Amino acid sequence: MFAIVETGGKQYKVSEGDIIFVEKLGLEEGATYTFEKVLALSDETGFVAGTPTVAATVTASVVKNGKGKKIHVIKYKPKKDSKKHIGHRQPYTKLQILSISK
Questions:
Q1: CA–CA dist 90, 81 (Å, integer)
Q2: Domain ranges of the chain
Q3: Which tens digit of pLDDT belongs to each residue from 64-101?
Q4: What is the pTM of this model?
Q5: How far apart are CA 22 and CA 31, in angstroms?
Q6: How many other β-carbons are positioned within 10 Å of the β-carbon of residue 88?
Q7: Which residues, in sequence order, are bridge partners of residue 94?
Q8: Is the Cβ–Cβ distance between 93 and 68 less than 8 Å?
Q9: Is 93 exposed, middle or buried (0-12, 13-18, 19+ CB in 10 A)?
Q10: What residues contact 29, with CB distance under 8 A and at least 6 apart?
Q11: Degrees, nearest 5: CA angle 102-58-90
């Protein structure tokens, strides 16, 4: 059984017990989160695609909040003596999928 959920402008294929990294949700560790946008669902009876969503919920538990690896951005303009170095760490929320209910 799996479901396709949308959060943070991205889509994730999840099953029970999966651990996923999503855009920061602003929840404390140990809190539960329910995905309202379930785009598709597959179970024993078959596959159901939503138009645009399916009447199902996916419940997840917040494992951790953190930041990803640093990305280095370097801007350079030749012959202008212009160099700029920027670093960025994207915040994320680590979720463990608890249940998928129809």
A1: 29
A2: 2-101
A3: 999 999 999 999 999 999 999 999 999 999 999 999 99
A4: 0.81
A5: 15
A6: 11
A7: 21, 64
A8: no
A9: buried
A10: 62, 63, 64, 65
A11: 160
